[in-house]
Design a protein that fits this description.
It contains 14 helices and 8 strands. By secondary structure, it is mainly alpha-helical. The relative contact order is 0.05.
Length: about 325
């Protein structure tokens, strides 16, 4: 086995040695450069703030000693440096007051505009408490202005009036009212309790004649009937998905199965998917019937069907018997 000396592992060519030396020199220069930087940079002088101090002193002396600072309101990142308007108190109707009047009362421009927008959209103040419900009005502003709110009563036909006694309890009445739209007369079809519906022939519209049945339930019952092939008894309607028992009990006296089942399963010709589509057959039961027919031949009568023991109970056979055909 050939061995190598330590010198062979650390052997460098002349070019590699020169490159290593240059790299070490360069690293030393970079490391020592901050030490020599002050020699090439002139010393920084002191910053002169005398001009700024003079301007600040001139601005301070130009202001009067008793003058208050101009208040401002910060809103959405902007400052409003305009002087605040002098607050006045006078009687006003919030349904007719202008924006300037509301601002003279001490309300902000935003609050006054909110009130105007509310009125522009059809809103109306019927009593002074309605003003308190405006989300932009502060409680202290409402308490200050409550005594000055004067809303005249609105009189006329077709209006509801809410009367309340004044504070002096002298029997005087202040009427506040609101406008109501006249009730539009409509013709409603009354569902008679004596009407009977053939559940195997009625359409969704005709099914709505029964008490407690609206368009949604009527459509769902008809869809269940079509998948089933018809009802043999009105009691089967209760199996409609999601139908409350309280609704079914209202319908039951008005429903009759006057016609027979209108569509049966041709058990000897039906495909596996057709068997699975019937509400009374699960996917497992449909597969058993389909495979049994393929292995033992066609069914001759219902007794031959009942030879299929697996997957079925007596209740299942009782429900399925009216829906099997052996043509």
């Amino acid at each position: 086995m050939k061995t190598y000396s330590l010198q062979e592992y650390f052997y460098y060519t002349r070019l590699e040695r020169n490159a290593g030396i240059m790299l070490c020199v360069l690293c030393g220069v970079v490391y020592a450069l901050p030490l020599f930087y002050p020699l090439f940079s002139p010393p920084a002088g002191k910053t002169d703030f005398s001009e700024a101090q003079r301007m600040a002193a001139a601005f301070t002396h130009s202001s009067s000693p008793g003058e208050a600072e101009t208040p401002y309101v910060a809103f959405r990142g902007r400052e409003n440096t305009s002087p605040r308007q002098q607050v006045e108190t006078f009687a006003f109707d919030p349904n007719t007051a202008s924006k300037d009047d509301l601002m003279r009362l001490g309300l902000s421009s935003r609050t006054a505009q909110t009130i105007l927008n509310y009125r522009a959209k059809g809103g109306h103040f019927y009593k002074k408490e309605d003003l308190k419900r405006m989300y932009t009005i502060r409680p202290e502003d409402y308490e200050r202005l409550e005594a000055y709110v004067q809303i005249p009563p609105r009189q006329g036909n077709g209006r509801y009036e809410d009367f309340s006694k004044k504070a002096d309890n002298q029997g005087a009445v202040a009427a506040t009212s609101f406008e109501e739209k006249p009730f539009a007369a409509q013709n409603f079809t009354k569902k008679t309790a004596t009407a009977t519906v053939d559940i195997n022939a009625a359409t969704a519209e005709e099914s709505q004649q029964s008490r407690g049945i609206g368009p949604g339930w009527a459509k769902r019952i008809v869809n269940f009937r079509e998948k089933l092939g018809g009802f043999t008894s009105s009691v089967q309607v209760a199996e409609t998905y999601g139908l409350p028992d309280s609704v079914f009990q209202k319908m039951l006296p008005q429903m009759q199965a006057n016609t027979a089942v209108f569509r049966k399963i041709k058990l000897n010709a039906a495909t596996l998917d057709e068997l699975k589509a019937h509400p009374y057959l699960s996917s497992f039961q449909a597969t058993i019937l389909f495979n049994y027919r393929n292995q033992h031949g066609s069914y001759t009568d219902f007794a031959s069907v009942k030879k299929v023991k697996a997957g079925f109970t007596d209740d299942d056979w009782r429900r399925l018997e009216p829906y099997f055909s052996f043509d």
